[in-house]
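Q: Sequence in, structure out?
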Amino acid sequence: MANRISRRLVLNAGLALALLAVTAGWLVTKTIANSKTNGPEDPTLNVVLKNRRAIQPRLNRLPAVSVFQQAVQTEPAVEQAQKNIKVLTGLPESQLLPVMNFISTSLGVKCDHCHVNKNNNWDFPSDEKPEKQTAREMIKMVQSINKTTFRANITVGCYTCHRGHTSPMGIPQLPVPEPTPRVENATPGAAAKEALPTIDQILAKYAGALGGSVAIDKLKSRSMKGTWLTSNGITLGYKVCQSAPDKIYTVLNTPHQGAFESGFNGAIGWEKSARGVRDLKGEQLAYLRRYPDLFKDIKLKEQFARMDVARRDQIDGRDVYVVRASTADNWREQLFFDAQTGLLVRRISYLPTMVGVIPEEIDFEDYRDVDGMKLPFTIRISAIDPFFSSTRKFTEIKLNVPVDDSKFNKPPAPTATPPKP
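A: Exactly. Output:
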């Protein structure tokens, strides 16, 4: 009991310190406007996340060091690829856009709150706006609090105090709500707590619900057709072709810019559109390979070093078992399995960054039988970045169809047509 009280006091004191420091920083600098700006929007850095689910991760103290260091070792730091990086030095390049979107969502602003846009041209390195310098000071403050108060655990972030406002909520809202009564420990003789299944039982039931180990081991390729509903309500045609272990080819048909083809042949990621052919790297390549990955949501045990059953909960009125999982380098997730069917219905991942923990939620719905396996025909993705928030509904899924491997290779750039004399 004493240890729990001590940890609670430390956490409350740290959050209070964060709130006091943030409030003081805003009062001293006085550079952040009290209203949102509505300047020109950038399609890549647009941070208005419509119909966003409220995700409250319970894993709110994630170690920063191992995941961060591994990312730095496998890709260039952001200061090597971008100009005028002052406080985000060492940040993996693929995390730059997620961090920018996280800051924007936390403050309820758009990119032009800190960055300069003149005549629809972005000048991201510019320090013209004082809000950018204020943001740098706030980032340093967050880093200092986590380092000195929480032993380098990512506990405090931009969202801790801002909650969608440029100014932190420093004054209690009246009337003050009645505190929630504390649940006392069960007294001797009370009903015993429901016994949870073991992680092996949950994973075995999931494998059986999918179709069994024979069907899973038989899976070599998959083709899917359907629609991609964007976060702003636009429906696009969508096709996916996959081949084990990690080759993928997708086609996204847009109403005004034509088809966008993307592929990964196991070594190189690429995209082809009316503008030409380009390589995909960093975050864009990671998302291409992730949604949907052939085995990512099927073979779960191989992905984690530790898995344990945390509790019984509910999603949309259905009972679920919640599994906490972490990799060898402390990448953490929560997996939600339907207590009755055994199927995976949700997974939430947590990306530790310099400015806070960024959550992402994926829901799996409308499971149907396909060639001896049961697969979801609807996948909903809720992310900080609206570009990746989407609902993908498939009308056709086929398994183990013949695949021409050449379609995964990067196509040659189109030959320029010489001007007519």
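The first strand starts at residue 62 and ends at 63.
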